[in-house]
Design brief:
The complex is a heterodimer.
Chain A (H helix, E strand, L loop, with lengths): L1 E4 L2 E4 L5 H8 L8 E4 L2 E3 L14 E9 L2
Parallel strand pairs in A: 1-5
Antiparallel strand pairs in A: 1-2, 3-4, 3-5
Chain B lengths: L2 E2 L2 E2 L4 E4 L6 H11 L3 E8 L6 H12 L3 E3 L7 H15 L3 E4 L2 E3 L4 E2 L1 H13 L3 E6 L3 H9 L6 E2 L13 H10 L6 E3 L5 H9 L4 E4 L1 H4 L4 H20 L22
Parallel strand pairs in B: 3-4, 3-12, 4-5, 6-9, 9-10, 11-12
Antiparallel strand pairs in B: 1-2, 7-8
Helix pairs in contact in B: 1-2, 1-9, 3-4, 4-5, 7-9
The chains are: A mainly beta, B alpha/beta.
Subunit structure (chain B): Homotetramer. Forms heterodimers with either ThiH or ThiS.
Family (chain B): Belongs to the ThiG family.
Function (chain B): Catalyzes the rearrangement of 1-deoxy-D-xylulose 5-phosphate (DXP) to produce the thiazole phosphate moiety of thiamine. Sulfur is provided by the thiocarboxylate moiety of the carrier protein ThiS. In vitro, sulfur can be provided by H(2)S.
Chain lengths: 66, 256
């Protein structure tokens, strides 16, 4: 199915958010936060958060800020 | 002693971490500032990138409390989701809440800010709202659960100093017991000293340090200005007068 990850299209087989991170090669032990369709998904809920075709996923990490 | 949500900071100078020439210069500036807090943010990370983790490692080594922001958010929903993501990543319920309403000045949208502050406070966040110096807006933010206010001095990154001295003085006077931080627009240490002389509890600086020719030296200069301004406020400055008053006594002066 087609998933939009950080505004880029990906054709993936992952059915849930945790599987998606794994399939895309993210280090899940790193400090990242996730949101799907504009809503925050806590790390502990990624494995049970099912994805749908066309889902918009955001994966964020720390960076400099003012 | 000023408490920010029950916490006393080691310094009244809060420092942003963006726009420095290198990570080493950022670290040096934070140390020379003796910063009480550093602000941080979140951005998209590609798979395999270690940029976010490298930055986080650097920040942890500095051993300074972090204040994540919601920079770049223009709606309540964006700001709330970003705050929730920041809480998980940075492990703090403190959030510098920015909801921008106008792109040229990066002026806060006070209506959206109040709504987002209410939602986040109910969700357990400790909100530091980036706001204009609007008195009514301040009242609404306090009613929404904020226990700290962060009025702007001038538009972010402009370096213009305290644009509305009257407004900032009025805000300070209306809410004497609320911890307040002047955030944004400060360009040189004298601006920071002026904010502290008005009775503000802290200042937040980023661009003025990061974009200085020597950021670490400028960080130190800001630290000194913040301390001087605070001491001056506590020492109770004299009142301004419109006319001259001789400082040398006139009694006993010779008539020649």
């Amino acid at each position: 199915m087609q998933i939009l990850v950080n505004d880029k299209h990906h054709d993936v087989t992952a059915a849930n958010l945790a599987a998606l991170l794994d399939e895309l090669g993210y280090d899940v032990t790193a400090r990242i936060a996730t949101a799907v369709d504009g809503c925050f998904v806590a790390a502990g809920r990624r494995a049970t958060h099912s994805l749908h075709d066309g889902a918009r996923v955001e994966i964020l990490a720390p960076m400099q800020g003012g | 002693m000023t408490l920010f949500y029950g916490t006393e900071l080691a310094s009244r100078l809060m420092l942003g971490t963006a726009q420095y020439p290198s990570p080493e210069i950022l670290s040096d500036a934070v140390r020379r500032a003796g910063a009480g807090v550093v602000t941080v943010s979140l951005r998209r990370e590609a798979a395999g990138s270690r940029a976010g983790q490298a930055f986080w490692t650097l920040i942890r080594e500095l051993d300074v409390p972090v204040l994540p922001n919601t920079a770049g958010c223009h709606t309540v929903r964006e700001a709330v989701t970003t705050a929730q993501m920041a809480r998980e990543v940075f492990g703090t319920d403190w959030i510098k809440l920015e909801v921008i309403g106008e792109s040229d000045t990066l002026q806060p949208d006070m209506f959206a800010l109040v709504e987002a502050a209410r939602i986040l406070t109910e969700d357990g966040f400790r909100v530091f709202p980036y706001m204009t110096e609007d008195l009514v807006g301040a009242e609404r933010l306090l009613r929404a659960g904020c226990e700290v206010l962060m009025p702007w001095g001038a538009p972010i990154g402009s370096g213009k100093g305290l644009n509305n001295l009257f407004g900032l003085r009025a805000l300070r006077a209306h809410f004497p017991d609320v911890p307040m931080v002047v955030d944004a627009g400060i360009g040189v240490p004298s601006h920071a000293a002026q904010a502290m002389e008005l009775g503000y509890d802290a200042v937040l600086i980023n661009t003025a340090v990061a974009k200085a020719g020597n950021p670490a030296e400028m960080a130190r200069a800001f630290a000194m200005a913040v301390e001087a301004g605070r001491m001056a406020y506590i020492a109770d400055p004299m009142e301004e007068r419109d006319m001259a008053v001789p400082s040398t006594p006139v009694i006993g002066q010779a008539v020649l």
